[in-house]
Amino acid sequence: MTEAQERDVVSWKVIKRLLLFIRPHMVWLILMVITSLVLAGLNILNAYALKGAIDATLSHAMGQLSKYLYLVIAAMVVEIPVSMLRTYATGRFSEKSLYDIRQHTTEHISKLPVSYLEKHPSGDLVSRLTNDISLLQGFLQGSLSELISQPLTFIAAVIYVFIISWKLTLFSIVAVPLLMWLTIKLSEPIEKYTKSQQESLSNVNSIAQDSISGLVVTKSFTLEGVMLRKYNDAVDKALSKALKVAKVQAVLEPVRAFMQMAPFMVTFAYGGYLAINNQMTFGGVLAFINLLNFVVNPITLIPRLISSFRSTTAAARRIFEVWDEPQERSDGKVFSVDKNAAAISFDNVCFSYNENEKLLFDHLSFEIYSGETVALVGPSGCGKSTVLKLITGFYKPTTGRILIYGHDMEEWSLEGVRDLISVVSQDTYLFPDSIYENIAYGKKDASESEIKEAARLAGIHDFIENLPDKYNTMVGERGVKLSGGQRQRIAIARAILKNAPILLLDEATSALDTESEYYIQQSLEDLMKGRTSLVIAHRLSTIKNADRILVMNNGKIVETGTHDELYNSDSLYRQLYLKQYQLDEEANGVA
To answer: Which GO terms describe its molecular function (predicted)?
Structure first.
């Protein structure tokens, strides 16, 4: 099998899969076929009436002429509602199908593991949700209808023109098979180029999204020129791919035009000859020319339909690539919280992000008991944040076990585990919504009084009440209308509202200035009371009051103890603490 044949097989498999997915709406597709069949029959009826009316006029048979005129009127009366019904069926089928595709794609993406989302640019997923689905939309709303109606009209027209004159039919369309073959061969590169073009557009979207998200950093380091060049390079590549598609279509266009004109030129010449020699009536010639439109048009549409078909399969394949990614598991149980068992336990956990990489954790073991506050420290890059990702089930250990309240993580449902955990991180994300809604996300059925009480405990209530719209204030994308401390307090309020027994703090104050950090730290200490807390802190001075400190290095826990125990010994913790103290002093201009 040649590469082109393999590509065609794959394309038809993609279309088959697409049609199987949207089969709940097949009743509308069937209605499209039925109405198209009726309209094809009406086209033949109109041609028959045209032939009869012209011949009756030339022979002065007024009775016959009236009969054919009534036939045309009857055809028009039927054609109008049938045409309306086909248009409605097409719209209903396409919109319902697109709705299902969008819903399924969005839902599937929401259930993908974090490991997939961290490895794939968000702009790529957005491109599949927008650009690729837009291509499917064009196919379902336009090309699919033509793929149904044009062949039916073509078959009916060919049968009738053969009845009128088989000689004229053969003369008129003798070159069509060759032109069809040429068209198909010339259009073969379109699918490959379109898929490449869509991937390039996806890259453009990713770069644009990253540029906007990192605009503050870009301006701070005067990187506007660098980012603009990077974006322009991506746009140039996308343009190059688009031009390749345009070149193929430019070659196909004159072929299409010639295919459209050639049969008519032959028909006028040879049909006129047959009529002059009384081998055909003039009505037959004109009816033939009228029907020839329905023979030639489907053929001349082949380049565009094939182009649309190949573009659609390329887009559908990119969407199916997302659908084929395995989702997070949805099995498991929800266990009751056993406060006599360790809240979190790592049992000989080995882990690496990629199979071929060195292990980040090498038989990592530790336990955190209910109600205990434990700090996790270590050199940069030792995997502290990864520990939190494993606890929340974002990644699975390569070997070993993680237990939550005495039960293996693999036995828990992921949703059940995450319901027990609140996370406050340095990269606080606020949804482009009101402050009220951003806090309310912590608890699905929270009352207004509960939300305001959470804000009060987080020390943000008074600030919110002084805003013009109070809790209805829109925070904007990423909460850019608020300071870092204010965003962090809203995140803390969200965690307070959730009231989960386990609290994970991932450098929750590292992005704040010293004064803001002090006040946020007070809120966090109130939040930690009565909860099992695992704290990763940028400034080691903030974890002095932890019940225990675990020191990580080279994938293992190398030290454990309180602040005083570790600081007063020749420990890695003491080295890290003194080094950071020196850096803080230098930053404050003391050293």
So the answer is: ABC-type oligopeptide transporter activity; ATP binding; ATP hydrolysis activity
Average the pLDDT over 503-524 and give the result: 72
Q: How many Å from the N-terminal Cα to the C-terminal Cα in the chain?
A: 74
Q: Is residue 78 part of a domain?
A: yes
Residues 15 and 103 in one domain: yes
Whether residues 67 and 152 share a domain: the answer is yes
State whether residue 9 is helix, strand or coil.
helix
Q: Are 308 and 11 in contact (CB under 8 A)?
A: no
Determine the residue type at 435. I
- Do 292 and 368 fall within a single domain? no
Is residue 386 domain-shared with residue 298, that is, in the same domain?
A: no
Same domain? For 283 and 385 the reply is no
Q: Rounded to 10 degrees, what is the CA torsion of 335, 336, 337, 339?
A: -110
| Structure tokens that stand for 132 in this block | 């690729």
| Residue 266 confidence (pLDDT) | 76
Residue 195, pLDDT score: 66
Residue 427 lies in a domain: no
Residue type for position 163: I
Kindly tell me if the per-residue pLDDT of 142 is higher than 70.
yes
Q: Give residue-wise pLDDT tens across range 478-505.
A: 555 788 788 888 988 998 899 899 999 8
Domain co-membership, 284 together with 358: no
Q: Which of 276, 293, 323 is the last residue of a domain?
A: 323
For residue 210, the domain's CATH number is 1.20.1560.10
Lowest mean pLDDT among 3-12, 312-321, 514-523, 547-556: 3-12
Number of structural domains in the chain? 2
And the tokens for 234?
Answer: 């991506």
Q: Using H for helix, E for strand and C for coil, what is the string for 468-519?
A: CCHHHCECCHHHCCCCHHHHHHHHHHHHHHHCCCEEEEECCCCCCCHHHHHH
DSSP code, position 221: T
> Does 478 reside within a domain?
no
| Alpha-carbon torsion (161, 166, 171, 173), positive or negative | positive
- Cβ contact 328:205 at 8 Å: no
Residues of 10-45 as b/e, b for ≥16 C-beta within 10 angstroms? ebeebbeebeebbeebeebbebbeebbbbbbbbbbb
Query: For 264-283, how does the pLDDT look when each residue is reduced to its tens digit (9 = 90+)?
Result: 777 777 878 887 888 888 88
Paired tokens of 580: 């950071």
Tens of pLDDT, residue by residue over 158-180, are: 888 888 888 888 877 776 676 66
Of 102 and 217, the structure prediction assigns the larger pLDDT to 102
Task: For residues 318 and 348, state if they share a domain.
Answer: no
pLDDT of residue 223: 59
Question: What percent of the residues of the chain are helix, what percent strand, and what percent coil, each to the nearest 5?
Answer: 65, 10, 25
- Judge if 269 and 349 occupy the same domain: no
If one compares 294 and 82, the residue with the highest pLDDT of the two is: 82
The reply to whether 247 falls in a domain is: yes
Q: Which domain holds residue 115?
A: 3-323
